[in-house]
Amino acid sequence: MDKILILDFGSQVTQLIARRVREAHVYSEIHPFDVTIDFIRDFAPKAIILSGGPNSVYESDYQADPALFELGVPVLGICYGMQWMAQSLGGKVESGNVREFGYAEIRARGHSALFRDIQDKTNDQGHGLLDVWMSHGDKVTAVPEGFKVIASNDSCPIAAIADEDRKFYAVQFHPEVTHTKQGTAMINRFVLEIAGAAPSWVMKDYIETAVARIREQVGSDEVILGLSGGVDSSVAAALIHRAIGDQLTCVFVDHGLLRYKEAEQVMEMFAGNLGVKVIHVNAAEDFMKHLEGVSDPEQKRKIIGREFVEVFQQESAKLPSAKWLAQGTIYPDVIESAGSKTKKAHTIKSHHNVGGLPDTLKLQLLEPLRELFKDEVRELGVALGLPPHMVYRHPFPGPGLGVRILGEVKSEFVGLLQRADAIFIEELRNFGWYDKTSQAFAVFLPVKSVGVMGDGRTYDYVVALRAVVTSDFMTAHWAELPYELLGRVSNRIINEVRGINRVVYDVSGKPPATIEWE
Ligand SMILES: Nc1ncnc2c1ncn2[C@@H]1O[C@H](COP(=O)(O)OP(=O)(O)OP(=O)(O)O)[C@@H](O)[C@H]1O
Ligand SMILES: O=c1[nH]c(=O)c2[nH+]cn([C@@H]3O[C@H](COP(=O)(O)O)[C@@H](O)[C@H]3O)c2[nH]1
Ligand SMILES: NC(=O)CC[C@H](N)C(=O)O
Ligand SMILES: [Mg+2]
Predict the structure, then answer these.
(1) Which of 3, 168, 403, 510 has the CB geometry, 3.0–4.6 Å to 163, for a possible disulfide?
(2) Annotated binding residue at 232?
(3) What SUPFAM superfamilies would the database entry show (predicted)?
(4) What amino acid positions are annotated as catalytic residues?
(5) What is the assigned CATH class of domain 203-391?
(6) Which CATH code is given to the segment(s) 410-505?
(7) Which segment of 149-163, 276-290, 359-373 scores lowest on mean pLDDT?
(8) In the predicted structure, residue 283 carries a pLDDT above the cut 50
């Protein structure tokens, strides 16, 4: 089987590279940039891909072993990976005076194998133009010997380079994110054609492999699974249930930070659909008590994570042979918490199920979805026979309204937000927009502003509406909701939810913002 080696310099989107390679039906593994050259030789990669990363090559100790360029293996450098390649082979990298984050249009030049016949449009002179996603502050200012420039634009004259004899390619933009429209085509080109890897690795064997792995891991132990009613834990439950049947017990925690009527709905849905044991624990009082007086987002996340585990431990103590805690952790949870194996990335926020886990956890973790992205999890859910309305729900974060009430969480705020959020979601459905957005919700802002209602003065809180479109939740666009829908939601919230007199719409993309506000 042909294998691709991805060396991780700490990019937030390294897993997306693996995913694109997986989509080309080629097996890949991600390893830290500082593995030894012997490791690389033994791995026997068909090609090597160098990821992006947060550092600057000219002042960082994030340096791989340049001996990898002597192995006769094709190499593709992305962003930091390009900068490291250029610097290591005798080129120059400098801090740019413009930082580029977001869309850019580049012109492909010189008929390289990487871009041949791949373009979004052509300019007057017949040159191919590509819409790409950039996220960098440094740039290559001199190309190494043997290399030529294969793409450029005004702000980044050296946007891609190649030494085609040695099959070394490097791009300043990110072909692995969906915003680079031809990114998949470029990665396919590099992996399948330039490196010549055979497309023989198929996802349809995934369930069998996963089931076998779970059986082997768990043996005859019992497993407790944190079930939220969301997509990931439901799919994890179905998968684990298929593997070990009655050895699985699900625990649904009501922490008092759920959406309007959510607890009832989740219990109802599971009674009807999964055929697995579900225990409903009401822990609202404990969660709220521990959150009192706390306003720092990371601290809130850690507390919520700890309380979750507290509940799971209590419940597992009631089962004689429970040794495992299963969770629907998926890849984006891991990378944003920098809980990945390589620990080279920056922490953006601690997802409650990753960074929030305390060291005192007595159960072993079982996370069969840890390497998958949301849409892959959904595909798996469908293959496992879960109903579409469950598989295509919007995600809801484990810490729930706890990270949608900015600052300190108070019960009064929870009530206001639940009602505003329910109105927003109801109208989204009425207007046929629920399925056109990937995630939508209301955020409670603990600031007051002045309004006038019925000729009287009001001095009340603000709610922000957030709706995004994304396929993998790593990058996202704000949804271009119709004004009529926004107007209707705003009217209803201000009229129906006493205590809120202003509604705003969030028009920030990810990056630079994140989807949740905390
Ligand atoms: N209320 C809850 N009770 C029990 N476990 C929970 C709860 N909320 C979250 N979890 C656990 O934390 C994991 C991560 O939560 P997350 O919201 O990312 O996934 P999900 O709820 O399964 O799916 P979705 O992303 O669609 O909401 C869940 O898979 C689940 O194991
Ligand atoms: O289970 C979860 N526990 C968490 O702590 C958490 N934080 C964010 N999210 C969800 O992850 C996706 C990306 O969110 P961000 O852009 O805000 O990081 C979005 O879908 C968020 O709702 C979480 N899910
Ligand atoms: N995304 C990246 O890999 C960025 C590389 C480097 N830190 C820069 O700013 O240019
Ligand atoms: Mg959830």
Answers:
(1) 168
(2) yes
(3) Adenine nucleotide alpha hydrolases-like, Class I glutamine amidotransferase-like, GMP synthetase C-terminal dimerisation domain
(4) 79, 174, 176
(5) alpha beta
(6) 3.30.300.10
(7) 359-373
(8) yes
Q: What is the mean pLDDT of residues 413-439?
A: 98
Q: Is 479 helix (H, G, I), strand (E, B) or coil?
A: coil
Domain ranges of the chain: 3-194, 203-391, 410-505
The rounded Cα 347 to chain-centroid distance in angstroms is 13
Q: Establish whether domains 203-391 and 410-505 are of one fold.
A: no
Q: 253 CB under 6 A from ligand 1?
A: yes
Mutate to test the pocket of ligand 2, among 259, 304, 351, 372 (most ligand atoms within 8 A of CB): 351
Identify whether 512 is preceded by a cis peptide bond (ω within 30 of 0): yes
Q: 64 CB under 6 A from ligand 1?
A: no
Question: How many angstroms separate the alpha carbon of residue 124 from the centre of ligand 1?
Answer: 52
Average pLDDT (203-208) is 73
In short, whether 437's Cβ falls inside 6 Å of ligand 1 is no
Supply the angle between the helices 206-218 and 231-244 in degrees, to the nearest 10.
70
CATH of domain 3-194: 3.40.50.880
pLDDT at 155 over 70: yes
Ligand 3 in reach of 60 Cβ (< 6 A):
no
Q: What angle do CA 151, 115, 29 make, to 5 degrees?
A: 105
User: Would you say 140 is a known binding-site residue?
Assistant: no
Burial classification of residue 320, based on how many CB atoms lie within 10 Å of its CB (0-12 exposed, 13-18 middle, 19 or more buried)? exposed
